[in-house]
Design brief:
The structure is a single chain. The chain is α/β, with parallel strands linked by helices. It folds into 2 domains: 2-220, 3-Layer(aba) Sandwich (Rossmann fold), CATH 3.40.50.360; 224-296, no CATH class. The protein has 13 helices and 7 strands. It has helices spanning 14-28, 52-57, 59-63, 95-101, 104-110, 126-138, 155-168, 184-188, 191-202, 224-246, 252-270, 272-283, 288-299; strands at 2-8, 33-39, 81-86, 88-89, 92-93, 114-121, 142-150. It binds flavin mononucleotide. Flavin mononucleotide (FMN) binds at residues 10-12, 14-15, 50, 55, 58, 87-91, 120-125, 162, 166.
Length: 304
Amino acid sequence: MKKILVLYYSQSGQLQRVLGRLKDGLLAGDEEVQCDVREIVPVTPYPYPWPFYRFFNVFPEAVTLDGCAVKPVDLADQYDLIVLGYTIWFLSPSLPVTGFLQSNQAKILFAGKPVVTVIACRDMWLIGQEKMKSLLAGLGARLLDNVVLTDQGKSIYTFVTTPRWMLTGKKDRFWFFPKAGVAEEEIHRADRFGRRLAESLAAGKETGEAPLLSDLGAVNVNGKLIATERIAHRSFLIWSRLIKKAGPQNSRGRNMVITIYAVFLLCLVLTVVPLNMLVRRLLSPFGRKKLARAVEYYEQPSGR
Ligand SMILES: Cc1cc2nc3c(=O)[nH]c(=O)nc-3n(C[C@H](O)[C@H](O)[C@H](O)COP(=O)(O)O)c2cc1C
């Protein structure tokens, strides 16, 4: 009997539902598998929906991986595979997940263990997964696969629909914008990953180095977002230092710098982002090979 741990933090329940479908797939076949699902719970809960300043107050800590304190998770002695579900906060793993990975409990749990990461986010997760890779490597875990589900609609729409959802709790379509969040059909189809995992575990494949979820459409990197993420993250590092210096979370000093940052961000989105898109479109014939290599890199280990 193989034992799987599904560990996650989800605020609205979206990622939880993705993992629920994965578990359905795990248990659907004849393979003998046992699955424990455990939620990561922060000592001080984060709000959802988020008040505007609370939302931006977690920005510096998320970017610099200052994980929050989390409650101990009730675990069995031994697992054959860990499925780690996480969402992205400001191009980084969410603070409760980072906090758990920095806990003493994680040091014991993850050492030498095969891990499958599952992300459900807007559509900017590349840098977050790079950070996740280094957190897992620090724990001595072996990352076998990565599954990514992103919000429905074009990036330009989700730039509005995802923050609206986070700040108001509203997911419905409005004007010409699509519904917020991952499409229901995508969530439903996540059982295919569980089925494959059960088959792979039955064959003992989790002890090897090869990915288990190839050819299932586990990831689909949007090449157009690679440069945007890299540029945004550079600016995030600078601003997170500035905001941290302005004062502790929810202090007046921090909120003042956050106001300046929010205006800066809006100006950036309205000016630099479209300009950058235009320049990249003009230069794209010259960088195609480089871009294809970058896409292939970020799609590892599972691939399309
Ligand atoms: C504080 C915060 C920052 C976020 N930053 C990003 C981001 O940088 N990239 C992204 O793709 N999604 C981002 N999101 C969206 C989340 O990754 C995720 O889609 C959303 O929180 C819903 O997940 P859940 O309800 O399952 O927790 C952010 C959400 C929050 C709350």
